[in-house]
Amino acid sequence: MPKIDADLEKALRLLRDYFVAKRIPFALIGALVPAVLLSTETGIRETRDADHVIKLTSWAEWEAVIADLAKLGFTQGRGEQEHRLHYGMAEIDLIPYGVSSGPEEVLAWRKSGNRMNMAGFADVFRYAQLTEVVRGLALPVVPLWLFVVLKVIAYLDRRLPRDMSDIIYVLERYESSGETSRRFEIASGIEDVTYETSGAYLLGCDVRKNVSAKVIELVKDFVGQLTDEYHPVISAILREEPLLDSKARRQTVFKLIWAFRKGLS
């Protein structure tokens, strides 16, 4: 299990109890996902923030939720961070799905006017599975392949290198161990896919099997632009990994993206 500080654990329990009591569908989608799903296999990844998607039908419901959470001790971010909540040292990004009066795939925040691509978010409530996040606390958590899809969409929205770094983190570790791992089978049967890149290939296959054609094309169009290891996006990823910025690491990152793209095809 990941290292979760006391404020975040209490915030997660409060949110779980509130959403369940109000019958509001919710799920974890952010950096806590790989921290939870990969920590037992690849070492513990520490985090003090958690991103949630909640299913609502109107902005009036959103305002009611924010008012209720304020009574529980949460405070809302200032300025353009309308989605940001704080509980002590913990940060919670809360994203409402279903409130937009326009296309469901675009969320326009009312105060800032910022627009968020919601492509892929409909799948959150379909695929999230109850998973123990800390002892005695099980929450709906999206699978890793959907986490990567949402991170690609987030990167296209805001161009933050850390989103791409999170993607690479998962591509390297997807099905990296365990008796049910498909890596050996794939590595021996798919041309130009090695054991080290087979997890990325498998993740691409799982995306292709489970999400809509529109979302697949969006992801394929993006990764298809990363044509060599010196692409600016890969350079940005390496700047997030200063101790690993080398020619070998650059090639590794590109090979992972290439295998992911091959799995999508």
Kindly report the spatial arrangement of strands forming the biggest sheet: 1-2-5-4-3
The fraction of residues in strands falls at 15-25%
Low-confidence stretches: none
SSE run: HEHEHEEEEEHEEHHHHHHH
Describe this structure in words.
The protein has about 260 residues and is of the alpha+beta class. The protein folds into two domains: about 5-140, Beta Polymerase, domain 2 (2-Layer Sandwich), CATH 3.30.460; about 150-265, no CATH class. The protein has eleven helices and nine strands. The protein has a five-stranded mixed beta sheet with strand order 1-2-5-4-3. Strands 6-7 form a two-stranded antiparallel ribbon. Strand 8 (about 130-135) and strand 9 form a beta hairpin. Helix 5 runs antiparallel to helix 6 (about 160-175) and helix 6 (about 160-175) packs across helix 10. The longest helix is centred in the C-terminal third of the chain and has 18 residues, at about 245-265. The protein starts with 5 loop residues before the first helix and ends with a helix.
